[in-house]
Amino acid sequence: MTETCRRIVDLRWFDPLMLVVIFVNAIILGLETYDSIERSIGGALHTANDVILALFVVELLIRFGAEGFSPRRFFRSGWNLFDFVVIGASFLPGLRENATLLRLIRLARIVRAIRLLPDLRVLTVAVARSVPGVASLAVITLLLVYVYGMVGWVIFHEHDPANFANIGQSMVTMFVLLTLENLPTYIEQGQELSDWTLVFYVSYVLVASFLIFNLFIGIVINSMEEARTIELHRAERQVLDDDSSNDRRAHAIILRERLHHLKNAVEDLERELAAQERSGARR
User: Is the pTM of this model over 0.70?
Assistant: First the structure.
């Protein structure tokens, strides 16, 4: 039985089929928001939702069987745990009487598409990995906005009270300036007071808009590399734990990931070598 479930999960069409079911679920959920459609074929849509839920239950049982019907192995994967929670929540007592909760649970099923799309799964892991770095960057940005907001209030609170009436409004103004929106207008209004105000705005743009956003991009890129490494290790563990580890497709995925990391390492070495050559030429 376990071997049969594993063969089903490893079939090329299994994940795409479940992805199609998820998309159909999303379409049905969207159709239910139209009152005219709900009145005309609402019963059919509810029946379709029940059929889709049954398919998700069957999928979950097959994946559970592929892990040897072992809860420890099955729940070792965060995606399996997520699937179990989302699908199991549909059977909570009294849920069908609460239309809002029922729709939210059905909406959560659509998020399951993430596990079936490898690139999207990597992006999701990267977002999670970037949270600590982004949080630290957010604190730095907040301090920067506060400092420049206070300086802006000192300079402009009489000249431009609409944007610098108090520290709160000043911080809002500086936060909006992170997007460089209306920057020429602010510079023009500042120069009416003094040309030295140009230093205030230019320094803020250079530090806040350019430096902060570049740091943000760097954090995201680094998180992407970490996420790819995590996915590579996960695939390796899956191959090692799987009795059918001779599957060529799984090995091909691992080899492609290793080749990708090797290519990145070579590119980094080439950039370092080029930088050293340029430094030597200047000397």
Answer: no
